[in-house]
Amino acid sequence: MDELTQGRSALRHTLLSPSSANRWLKCPPSARMCENREDGGSDYAAEGTDAHTLCEYRLKTALSLPAKDPIKNLTHYDDEMETCARDYAAYILGLIETARQNCPDPLVFIEKRLDFSKYVPDGFGTGDCVIVADGTLHVIDFKYGQGVLVDADDNSQMKLYALGALERYGFLYDITEICATVYQPRRDNISTWTTDTESLYQWAEEVLKPTAALAYAGEGEYRSGEWCRFCKIRNECRARAEHNLALARYAFRPPTLLEDNEIEAILAQVDGLVSWASDIKDYAYQTALRGKQWKEWKLVMGRSGSRRYTDEKAVARKVIDAGFDPYDVRSVLCVTALEKRLGKERFEELLGGLIAKPIGKPSLVPVTNKRKALDMAAYFSEIPDPKNNNQNESEDNENG
């Protein structure tokens, strides 16, 4: 296992990780509450790991450092990833040239473990790139994701990396300035934040160290905010619920009865309220699918999907052999139109075995709903194997 893979694998077992620092600094007890919750990973995370591996290779190659080509082992490699990696390497080379204007021999460290346990218990992370030069320390973090725009300004993760870099390399030069950069190519985002080492150390002693101690002990106050987005307990968190329910008291009043300042308060937080409501709805639905019995809610069969042909060419042959024209211009008529042309009885006789109607998706509804509660065992037994359904498989791939 290479250093990059080892470093990123270890981070998954770090209680107070840099990537979740924005959350545990705002809501210290969430760290321990999330500790034993499963994190199944995702294709996005695997894609990000591949992109980091490629970036490391391209940057080392650009700097004439020994590196093994990883491309054949990258599951998500494509032209876009290649372009992003090459552009990232070119950007780093530009920073190095800039550093050389004030320092003839800047040092470059790629995918290195950065230890900041002086301030955070067991705290460490992996720095994508660190440039150490006289006067300025550059810390660069590559972000391949395109869902959330990441800002370097006062970014907790970047500040932790900077502290780790200072601990490891600060003795090499007289460093007075920190330059933290988030490089996020798929969002056309290169965000840079500059601070002085004195301010960073002050934050570390006065804010980071005491808050990290609380988080490590599972203590402190629960607080809700935008940092809840990726929290593993966000669905069950009472603090988040109370925060959003307090806002909801305004939301259920007619806008004409609200003061301007109340409307502005709602506008500032309404996205969080909508996100929370969606999370609660999805949590209740998913747990019901796994067998939880809610007292006032139940699963029922949703509306079935539209009928479709299982083999369009076979449909055309059968209809032609029966003396009918199955086509509308050049394509086979849709199911409803062809049934009308043939008549229901003839349609069923000829094509009954070539028509599929996908079963409906379960819906969570109040127990007062007249529909019968769903038998989950029977439902799952009726779901077709996607391996035997090429049309569904290609659609899933496209959506994924």
What does this entry look like structurally?
The structure is a single chain. Helix 4 (43-62) crosses helix 5, helix 8 crosses helix 9 (260-289) and helix 11 (335-342) crosses helix 12. 46% of the residues lie in helices and 15% in strands. The chain has a 5-stranded mixed sheet. By secondary structure, it is α+β, with helices and mostly antiparallel strands. The protein has 14 helices and 11 strands. A hairpin with a 4-residue loop joins strand 4 and strand 5 (189-196). It folds into 3 domains: 3-217, Lambda Exonuclease, Chain A (Alpha-Beta Complex), CATH 3.90.320; 235-291; 299-399, no CATH class. It is extended, with a radius of gyration of 28 Å.
Keywords:
400 residues, Lambda Exonuclease, Chain A, disordered C terminus, extended, 3 domains, alpha+beta
SSE layout and pairing:
Blueprint: H1 3-11, H2 21-26, H3 30-35, H4 43-62, H5 79-100, E1 107-115, E2 124-132, E3 135-142, H6 156-169, E4 175-184, E5 189-196, H7 197-217, H8 238-251, H9 260-289, E6 297-300, E7 308-309, H10 312-321, E8 327-328, E9 331-332, H11 335-342, H12 344-351, E10 355-356, E11 363-366, H13 376-382, H14 390-399
Parallel strand pairs: 3-4
Antiparallel strand pairs: 1-2, 2-3, 4-5, 6-11, 7-10, 8-9
Helix pairs in contact: 4-5, 8-9, 11-12
